[in-house]
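Let us work through a complete example step by step.
Step 1: write down the sequence.
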Amino acid sequence: MYWTALIFAGLFETSGVLMINIYHQKKTWSALALLILAFTLSFVLLSFAMEELPMGTAYAIWTGIGAAGGAIVGIIWFKERATFLRVLFITMIISATVGLKLISSS
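Step 2: predict the structure and record it as tokens.
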């Protein structure tokens, strides 16, 4: 259950980053509200996950999901360049995140 919360925390982190970009483009109250909601849910779920999971592992995975997710969202929705090196490094972030999960004792 804690791992599921951590994964959703990372996905809400990605959603928050997405909403920052949308808010910068549109400056609407709904975009701002969704931005605040996404980051709030992200922090609440991260906090819950850290009740059981080691802080270093939980934070690294949360950050990895947010970083890779933000980059992938940028490529898919905002037409940012998907160069070989960019995709390689996103893959490395995801691999490191999965690796941390695999070696975790919790």
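Step 3: interpret the result. The mean pLDDT is 94.
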